[in-house]
Design a protein that fits this description.
By secondary structure, this protein is mainly alpha-helical. The chain is built from 7 helices and 6 strands. The protein is elongated.
């Protein structure tokens, strides 16, 4: 194991660069029946008294306009959560493919612990994506994976609160990832980025 600064890296036998499967990302923040989602958001604004909580006293407040603005804001936040979840789902599927690749190559086979999926030691692949500085369009990799670990499917807006959408989603996602990644006994070694290559394919523009 090689130590550079405060990072530990696994020693990959040989000197060649290993090609990993492409990361297929389908993170378009699209949902079926956007009009229905919009209606749910409008109902959420009313049921949770968001207008009363956010509007300052003043004459002739246009509640209809405020309701629409808040509903649009909720939908925007929800679509961000969906896009983040899709990134996390794509990453976990990519890690599964990488596991198959590692198992098929003698020089890589012993680098992964044969634990039951999703083993926290696989967080080294998330770190590899970060080290490669892939373009995520502003999505935080750890939060995306954490959100996918927390939800098997993208949660419908009907079960989410405005507090979750506005404030809690990033914290819950980061906590889920942090807890998952620390389930492995130290040291957790990183994969040396210069020894691996892969493509990131945006399936939304294919």
């Amino acid at each position: 194991m090689e130590i550079i600064g405060d990072r530990k890296f696994v020693e990959v036998p040989g000197g060649k660069t290993h090609e990993l499967p492409p990361l297929l990302v389908n993170a378009a923040a699209k949902v079926n029946r956007l009009d229905r989602v919009m209606n749910m958001a409008a109902n959420m604004v009313e049921s949770e008294d968001m207008l009363m909580r956010t509007d300052a006293p003043g004459p002739e407040v246009d509640f209809g306009r405020r309701k629409m603005d808040l509903a649009i804001n909720l939908v925007d936040q929800y679509l961000r959560v969906v896009a983040q979840w899709k990134w996390g789902h794509s990453i976990l599927e990519w890690i599964r493919q990488c596991e198959i690749t590692f198992e098929s190559r003698m020089e890589l086979r012993n680098l992964l612990h044969p634990d039951v999926w999703p083993h926290a030691g696989r967080s080294s692949f998330v770190q590899l994506l970060s080290d490669k500085a892939i373009d995520t369009g502003g999505v935080t990799l750890e939060n995306a994976v954490g959100l996918r670990l927390a939800f098997e499917q993208p949660p419908p807006i009907s079960i989410l609160s405005d507090h979750f959408l506005f404030y809690l989603a990033p914290r819950i996602a980061s906590t889920a990832y942090l807890d998952w990644s620390h389930m492995t006994a130290p040291p957790i070694a990183s994969l040396p980025p210069e020894r691996f290559s892969f493509e990131v394919v945006n399936m939304c523009i294919q």
